[in-house]
């Protein structure tokens, strides 16, 4: 651990929040001299204090200990670079337009890697009254089902959460070309071009 880097980060985060050392110390029920010591790189917060300090500054404990916040490269937020994350424990679904550090149920999530769907396994798409109606004959049991579908264009995402023991179906307004993603709980994330 680099106490100097950690101290500089604590200082920068405190200034970003427009807080004094005394204000941070009061929130943590410690002395402001302790905060000063950390910021000068003469010590490091005790492991029991790290979660509280991370919460005050709105960062992860990992980033505090690394002494730096990694900033994503600006890519303009293009939806075609969309990353999907799903918690294997609770099914929480998250998206990001670039790589992100996300966690749920105490575990760090990895972005799902999409594969092009093989012929014969595509979702069925038919046009009805200016909308696209999407269905599938995919198994929809608690052990094996499609958990979500998402139609993605350069600037839009239309997402539909799916549930076991329901028929997989949804409708969306016909738009320009894009990719239709779907996530099978057993086999992973797939896409097909529309």
From TrEMBL:
Q: Which UniProt keywords apply?
A: DNA-binding
Q: Where is the HTH cro/C1-type domain?
A: 10-64
DNA-binding in keyword set: yes
- Say yes or no: keyword DNA-binding present: yes
The UniProt entry, under SMART domains, shows: HTH_XRE
Give the top-rank taxon of the lineage listed in the UniProt record for this protein. Bacteria
Which Pfam families did the record assign? HTH_3 (PF01381)
Checking SUPFAM superfamilies in the record gives: lambda repressor-like DNA-binding domains (SSF47413), Superoxide reductase-like (SSF49367)
- In Swiss-Prot or TrEMBL terms, this protein is called Helix-turn-helix domain-containing protein
């Amino acid at each position: 651990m680099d106490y100097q880097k950690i101290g500089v980060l604590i200082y920068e985060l405190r200034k970003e929040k427009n807080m004094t050392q005394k204000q941070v110390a009061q929130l943590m029920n410690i002395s402001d001299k302790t905060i000063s010591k950390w910021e000068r790189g003469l010590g490091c917060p005790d492991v029991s204090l790290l979660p509280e300090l991370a919460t005050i500054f709105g960062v992860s404990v990992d980033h505090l200990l690394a002494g730096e916040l990694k900033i994503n490269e600006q890519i303009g937020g293009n939806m075609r670079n969309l990353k999907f994350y799903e918690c294997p424990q609770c099914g929480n679904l998250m998206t990001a337009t670039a790589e992100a550090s996300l966690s749920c149920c105490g575990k760090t999530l990895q972005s799902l890697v999409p594969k092009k769907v093989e012929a014969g396994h595509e979702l069925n798409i038919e046009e009805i009254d200016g909308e696209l109606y999407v269905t599938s004959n995919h198994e929809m049991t608690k052990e094996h089902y499609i958990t979500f579908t998402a139609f993605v264009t350069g600037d839009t995402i239309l997402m539909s959460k799916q549930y076991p023991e329901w028929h997989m179906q949804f409708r969306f307004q016909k738009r320009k070309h894009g990719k239709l993603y779907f996530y099978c709980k057993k086999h992973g994330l797939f896409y097909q071009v529309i």
